[in-house]
């Protein structure tokens, strides 16, 4: 077009011609604005209420259209085809389980007018096996716990209620009756007391005072765990798991029956 010539613009309104002009929602401009904006794909004139979501999002639609393997679920599984869930329609309605509120309740005819012979109070337990309120000890110590030996960074170890002496030959004798103790006995330093002498002196304080007897500790030999046969070697009679279980039970029972 030469300079000085007048251009004649046609009197045509925008969008009235048959030319398919690109617009923004569906097309983008070839510039910086078009690089930043994403065009609308699909059918722009379709509203949100025009989709059949109730048909495409049901559980049965997903089972019918999801990809299924003919080799089973996982590796080395069954090779038969998967079975889809069938809809059950022979089920009762929710109101079937509700009781009929319009039905009159069944009433038992009274033996006497106005139920005059009915029992006023409920039946109480008349058995003598149930202890009374005064038989319980309310002032005892509650929440008793087994004593444990803790160390920084290490495991907690149980402090046994009865100390076990591992010796090949037990030569301990009671300082009062001069006899070898049978079963558990008490020891404080080099003094040994059998159970009978300890209980007698604890009650009557004949040779030792009760304050001195509190320092004694209950001990026993290792004859129930080991068999030394007169040597320093030992043959284990009970495994460690059973021994720890018995020590834990004994430590717990000693809190209530020392």
UniProtKB/TrEMBL annotation:
GO terms for biological process: regulation of cell projection organization. InterPro entries: CIMAP3, SHIPPO-rpt. One of its GO terms (molecular function) is cytoskeletal protein binding. PANTHER family: PROTEIN PITCHFORK (PTHR31508:SF2). This is Uncharacterized protein. It comes from Rotaria sordida. The lineage of its organism: Eukaryota, Metazoa, Spiralia, Gnathifera, Rotifera.
